[in-house]
Amino acid sequence: MPDYKAPVDDALFLLNDVFHFDRYGNLPGFADASPDIVEAILGEAAKLCEQSLAPLNMVGDAEGCTRHDDGRVTTPTGFRDAFRQVVDGGWIGLSVPAEFGGQGLPSTLTQAVNEFMCSANMAFAMYPGLTQGAIAALLAHGSDAIKRKYLPKMVTGEWTGTMNLTEPHCGTDLGLLRTKAAKQADGSYKITGTKIFISAGEHDLSSNIIHLVLARIEGAPAGTKGISLFVVPKIVVNDDGSLGGANGVSCGSLEHKMGIHGNATCVMNYDGATGWLVGDENRGLNAMFTMMNEARLGVGVQGLALSEVAYQNAARYAKERLQGRAISGVKYSDRPADPIIVHPDIRRTLMTIRAFNEAARALVLWTALRGDIAHRSGDAKERQSADDHMGLLTPVIKGVLTDRGFENAVMAQQVFGGHGYIVEHGMEQFVRDARIAQIYEGANGIQALDLVGRKIGKDGGRALMAFFNEVQGYIKEKSADEQMKGYVAPLGVSLGHLQQASMWFMQNAMTKPDNAGAGATDYLHLFGLVALGYMWCRIVEAAIVKLPEADGGPSRYSAKLVTARFFMERMLPETATRLARIEAGSASTMELADDAF
Amino acid sequence: MPDYKAPVDDALFLLNDVFHFDRYGNLPGFADASPDIVEAILGEAAKLCEQSLAPLNMVGDAEGCTRHDDGRVTTPTGFRDAFRQVVDGGWIGLSVPAEFGGQGLPSTLTQAVNEFMCSANMAFAMYPGLTQGAIAALLAHGSDAIKRKYLPKMVTGEWTGTMNLTEPHCGTDLGLLRTKAAKQADGSYKITGTKIFISAGEHDLSSNIIHLVLARIEGAPAGTKGISLFVVPKIVVNDDGSLGGANGVSCGSLEHKMGIHGNATCVMNYDGATGWLVGDENRGLNAMFTMMNEARLGVGVQGLALSEVAYQNAARYAKERLQGRAISGVKYSDRPADPIIVHPDIRRTLMTIRAFNEAARALVLWTALRGDIAHRSGDAKERQSADDHMGLLTPVIKGVLTDRGFENAVMAQQVFGGHGYIVEHGMEQFVRDARIAQIYEGANGIQALDLVGRKIGKDGGRALMAFFNEVQGYIKEKSADEQMKGYVAPLGVSLGHLQQASMWFMQNAMTKPDNAGAGATDYLHLFGLVALGYMWCRIVEAAIVKLPEADGGPSRYSAKLVTARFFMERMLPETATRLARIEAGSASTMELADDAF
Question: What's the predicted TM-score (pTM) here?
Answer without folding.
Answer: 0.98
